[in-house]
Structures are given as structure tokens and as C-alpha cells.
Predict the structure.
Amino acid sequence: MNPLFTTVKLAGKTLKNRIVMPPMTRSRSTQPGDIANELMAKYYAQRASAGLIVSEGTQISELGKGYAWTPGIYTRAQVAGWKKVTDAVHAKGGVMFAQLWHVGRVSHESNTGGKQPVSSSALQAEGVKVFIDDNNSPGFVQSSMPRALEIAEIKDVVEEYRHAALCAKEAGFDGIELHAANGYLINQFLDSKANNRTDEYGGSVENRLRFLQEVVAAVCTVFDSDSVGVRLAPLTTLNGAVDENPELTYVEAVRTLNSLKVGYVHIAEADWDDAPDMPLEFKQAIRDAFDGIVIYAGKYTADRAKIALEQGWADMIGFGRPFVANPDLPARLAKDIPLAQHDPDTLFGGGQRGYTDYPAAG
Ligand SMILES: Cc1cc2nc3c(=O)[nH]c(=O)nc-3n(C[C@H](O)[C@H](O)[C@H](O)COP(=O)(O)O)c2cc1C
């Protein structure tokens, strides 16, 4: 028996299996206003047989937005849009967390209402492109040169996370996941090569962890800490965030999250083809540092997931790309039904094609 299909407790609920639909940006929010909609409700509800769904990255503020057409979670209209999604998922017996996202320097003035993007430091993510939609001529551009947040502004961003968590609660989400991975704002504080601050937010591991810690504390005033997860990407180099000593930094990060009693840590091992091998000792060190649920995602199959769960360094496994074209993925994995392949051209933007029109098997 594959332990993927056993229940597990999270956020006071019994999840029906250990399969996670991890966050996947699909860029189909209603414009203007970055509002979640009926089509998105249908898409997520189709995938409600996952033990846990984590929403696509959802910006917490105008400055937190990195790409055209991604949804937000800070206005009244956005809350109402997401309520349609959580209602549809709950009606199918699903459990859903919102991924709260601030992109920091991975943006462009076109996506931030003309404001200069911000980061831990005035360091540009060279070669990193973002998607913009200027005057209806969409395309990719080099991300902008950011400015470093001042200390008072860091406190304001922490407050924006708290506000977004309040919005997520009102929208009916069962919890939230902080996007601290893939080179976005929190990651720009964590990783030594993206953070050259000389104040209490830069330098030592303890200082680089301070922003994450403050954000976790803020959102835990809204949700119980076991309804809060944190996504980390220790080894991937996406969006130019690299740490000199990832094992030291990230085991310490997980220790800190353990002391804050968050419900889960979610390790992103792969992003597309960038899938550095994460040594077993590193995974074991994360396991030893954390008492809650540990989720891994990145190129997993049912067989690899089984090994991870049996060896004990993971409690749940995310399947990203497989969920795109297989809305009934848990049933297919359980019955060993061959998986459909997704169309890469319809991942971002557009309508129902390549989004809600992938059928369930039989
Ligand atoms: C289309 C697409 C969009 C993604 N968007 C996000 C996102 O918004 N937030 C995030 O943390 N990861 C995002 N990811 C990464 C996935 O959550 C996952 O970690 C990755 O796809 C590796 O898992 P897989 O090999 O099973 O697909 C995205 C991946 C894909 C394919």
C-alpha cells in the first residue's frame, strides 16, 4: 500500500490523502483588478480530490505583483472573487490554502502601478524576465532595478502580509502558505547573495531570517499557527536568489519555523528543469528540525513519493505539472492510470482551453 493514500491531520482537519496540489500560477484572473473568478473556481474544484490544494501565488499588494494577470488578495473585489473559489472547493470536500506572494525585485514598473520595485537590497536580478501587459501588447521584459526597503517600510510590508491573511480568512481559505521560495521577496532576505544589508535584516543567518520570522508572527495573529505553511527553495537558483551555505541557512530557517509552530514547511526541490539534487542528509536534517508536516515537491512520481513517505523525511508530496492535465490525479495515481500530458502553450493566460477542459479518466 502506498502511504500517499492515507489520511493526515493539518490545521485541525483530516486530509483525505497526502497528495498536495502545489501552487501554480496560471494567470487567468479577471482584469482590471486581478480578481479570482468563476473559471478559476471551476479549475480548483475539479482538483479538490487532492488532500490539500495550495492556490497559485497571490500578491498581497500592488507592489507585490510580478506578472500581468496574476490574482491579488488585498481588495474587497479580490476577496469576493476568492470566496467563489473556496466555496466551490469546499463543496467538493477539498481543503485549500492561499499562497501569499510578494515578488520584491522580480517585477517591473508596468506591473506595480508605476512604482519602483523593492527588495532587501538594491541588487538587480540580472537576466530575470517578467511578463507585462502594457497597452494590450503583452510580453516579457527584464525585471527592474529595485530599491532597498527602509526599516520602517519593512514593517509596512509585514502589515500588508497580515492584511492579506485577514483577506484570505474572510475569503474562506483554510490557511495560508507564505511564498518564501523561488527568489521572491522573503527569499531575497534569506539568501546571502541577494541580501547585502548591514542592519538587523542582513548579514548573519539570524538577521536574514528576521523578515520571515516577523511575517510569520504577523499572519499567526490571523490564523492559528498550524494553519500557516511556509514554502522554501533551499537549492534552486530561480530568479537569481542564491545562498552561500544553503544547508546552514535553511536548516536554521526550519528550526525557527518549528519554534513558531507553523503547520508545515513545503520544500520546492525543482522548478522546471532546475532540479539540483538535494542530499538525503539535508532532507534528514530538515526532518529532525521540524515537528509538523514536511511537504516536498519537484518531479515526483507515485513511486518516488512512496519512498519519501516510507523513509520518513516527507509527510506529504506535491505534484505540480501532473495536476495541470490530470484533474483527478489522486485516482489516477491510486489506480496506476497513465497520466495525460499538459499543453505548455496554455499554461499562462487565456481561458478554459488547457485549463478546465482536461477530462477526468473514464
Ligand atoms: C505553471 C506553473 C506555475 C507555477 N507557479 C508557482 C507559484 O505560483 N508559486 C510557487 O511556489 N511555485 C510555482 N510553481 C512551482 C510548482 O509549485 C512546483 O514546485 C513545480 O512545478 C515542481 O513540481 P512538479 O515537478 O511536480 O511540476 C509553478 C509551476 C508551474 C509548472
